[in-house]
């Protein structure tokens, strides 16, 4: 199987190399350990608990950071089709878990997609001279009109006015600037 997102935790559990996507799953140890009696004293219990605590905290932090991991994924490959299935697959979680955990963190996949589109649109408008129509297409909109409507909701300004004013008003100052608007959902690709 593929390496899960928490693969780094395995080094705390196993004292040897860990391989993923192997032909078989196995655990190897020296045969002499089979002759030893099974014992668990207070010191061993304390050691086990000390090792278990970081793993528990790691799991909690991993869940809390899902929104950041998804946002990074969206920004890293803006041309990819970021369907729920594709995102969940890259994270080695189910679509249902993806939606549930994002909801627990107070955001939806569509909100993260809109935020990524907004950030990329702002960057393209300010750092390139691409026509607005090309910027619209680059951030996943089928029409310039739909993009302009969404951009106004995100920033409070039309794309051309935003570019001319070098970003004034600032991103996030207009309605929907926090990325929580559903602007463009029906007319944007992905």
From TrEMBL:
Gene Ontology MF terms in the entry: DNA-binding transcription factor activity; transcription cis-regulatory region binding
Keywords linked to the UniProt accession: DNA-binding, Transcription, Transcription regulation
Compositionally biased region (Low complexity): 162-172, 180-190
Entry GO terms, CC: cytosol
Superkingdom to which the source organism belongs: Bacteria
Stretches assigned to the HTH araC/xylS-type domain: 68-165
Record bears the keyword DNA-binding: yes
Pfam families (UniProt xref): Arabinose_bd, HTH_18
Region Disordered, annotated ranges: 162-190
SMART domains: HTH_ARAC
PANTHER family xrefs: HTH-TYPE TRANSCRIPTIONAL REGULATOR GADX, HTH-TYPE TRANSCRIPTIONAL REGULATOR VQSM
Annotated protein name in UniProt: AraC family transcriptional regulator
Naturally occurring in which organism (per UniProt): Thauera phenolivorans
